Amino acid sequence: MSAAASTRAGEDGGDGQARLRAGAWSSLAALLASGGTLVCCALPALLVAAGAGAALSSLVAAVPQLVWLSEHKAAVFGAAGAMLAAAGALQWRNRGAPCPVDPALRAACLRTRAWSWRTWLASVVVFAIGGAFAFALPWLASRG
Predict the structure, then answer these.
(1) Cβ atoms of 84 and 35 closer than 8 Å
(2) Predicted model pTM
């Protein structure tokens, strides 16, 4: 084992659990951030398109922070995009992290790694939907 590999293994107890947890938490943080893009832009557009403008006005009255999110959508999308990129980089780095030798723990490790990837991919999809409602659809509507 190389010195770098032994140092890296010594940082997290030798079984890669710390790296795996970092990837899982980063995926959840990215999902939360990309969910903010839906709340800021996709949800209001969907409510208006469905003819539920009164429901939207009630929602804005109950949660006035939605207006702030909508006014600062570029910053919301920038932060969410940065978190998605960081989470994706951590996922990629952890793709080959070692799992425990015990069969049950190894299965749990691999299952967690798979769910972490799925969570990150769901975050990317949510981010893309929010981006479509916030930027792409208004731009297309202004051209036509």
Answers:
(1) no
(2) 0.70
Distance separating alpha carbons of residues 139 and 131, to the nearest angstrom: 11
Write down how long the chain is: 144
Task: Say if residues 133 and 41 touch (Cβ distance below 8 Å).
Answer: yes
Longest CA span, the chain: 65
- What's the angle, vertex CA 26, arms to CA 25 and CA 29, rounded to 5? 90
Residue 52's identity, in one-letter code, is A
In what helix (H) or strand (E) does residue 38 lie, and over which residues does it extend? none
CA 116 to chain centre: 10
Label residue 51 left, alpha or beta by phi (over 0 means left) and psi (-120 to 50 means alpha).
left
Burial degree of 69 (CB within 10 A; 0-12, 13-18, 19+)? middle
pLDDT, tens only, 111-138: 988 988 998 898 888 888 888 888 888 8
Residue with tokens 């951030």: 33
H/E element holding 31? helix 17-37
In contact, 123 and 84? CB cutoff 8 Å: yes
**Angle, to 10 degrees, between the axis of helix 17-37 and the axis of helix 103-131?**
20
Asked if residue 90 lies in contact with residue 23, where contact means CB atoms within 8 angstroms, the answer is yes
